[in-house]
Amino acid sequence: MAAAVGRRAFCFDGTTPPTSHHLRNYPSVREHSEWYASHIDELLRQGLVEAYDSKQHGPLRNFAATINPLHVVSKADGNLRPIIDPTASGVNDCMTKLPCPLPDLASILEHLPFQGALGKRDLASGFHHIKCSPEARRYMAFRHPTTEAVLRWVVLPFGASQSPPIFVELTNAACAIFQAECDRRGLRVKLFCFVDDYIILGVTHADVVGAFAVMDEIGGELGLEWKTSKDRGRNEHLRQLDFLGMLFDTEKMEMRISPDKRQRYAADVRALLDAAATGPVQRHLLESTVGRLTFIAR
């Protein structure tokens, strides 16, 4: 299934991205050059990126119609995430915009089983489940952070504007397949998927355990890999579960902001107010805090 979805990654709207072999990597790459180089070398070893070889690929333009600058950002858990910037190269502007349907978290509350059991799990290496078509790869090239060698992504890269909706198409399809098999086996569960995060709502703990087994078995057939270290609810009967920062409770039958997220949001607001008291604040900090407050209001 991943390969089938990958054949349409990426779709362009008829316009051709400009040649951008002149763009260079961002300063953030130099700051983490040793880590970045090691990371890229590992991706190359795994076959997730491929290197330009003039004997194999011919002229550089055949391998890389566009070379995107590299960037690195910090993830919520403190780790680093390598991304390319197809916006700077003009590639993102030429992509066909795809829908990215995500269920409202409140919809989980509507299906919450009274005194039922809960479980959750995450996909590992999310975007790497989907391969790009050979033609699309020509627009996903970048320069090695230390050697300047030209490489390109074989799988969906972080940074491309349509990577999330293409990946969501895969995970939503997988969720529907999991649900159908759970129904066929008589498991009283409801599954929801938010990008690469799955939540299981079960009438009993046995139902949830059965759903985990379905996701293991069918997920393996689909070529999906799970972060089993993050599985919750498989070995214990959970009536409360933190999912995407919201605490779901099958005893009180409610959804509320988890204590950890509440504390983080309060700290962010305090930091913004303290910064504003001494001078101008950066726009992205203001937008980020407003976004969190909007989330709470909703």
Walk me through the structure.
Residues 75-246 form the Reverse transcriptase domain. It holds the Pfam family RVT_1. This is Reverse transcriptase domain-containing protein. InterPro entries: DNA/RNA_pol_sf, Hepadnavirus_pol/RT, Rev_trsase/Diguanyl_cyclase, RT_dom. It comes from Astrephomene gubernaculifera. By secondary structure, the protein is α+β, with helices and mostly antiparallel strands. The protein folds into three domains: 2-96 and 126-159, HIV Type 1 Reverse Transcriptase, Chain A, domain 1, CATH 3.10.10; 117-122 and 166-256, Alpha-Beta Plaits; 260-297, no CATH class. Helix content is 41%, strand content 17%. The chain contains twelve helices and twelve strands. It has helices at residues 2-6, 27-31, 33-46, 54-57, 60-63, 86-89, 105-110, 134-137, 163-184, 205-222, 259-278, 283-297, and strands spanning 49-51, 67-68, 70-74, 80-84, 117-122, 141-143, 150-153, 189-194, 197-202, 240-243, 246-249, 254-257. Strands 1-7-6-2 form a four-stranded mixed beta sheet. A hairpin with a 5-residue loop joins strand 3 (70-74) and strand 4 (80-84). Helix 9 crosses helix 10 and helix 11 (259-278) packs antiparallel against helix 12 (283-297). The chain is globular. The two termini are 35 Å apart. The model is unreliable at 1-8 (pLDDT under 50).
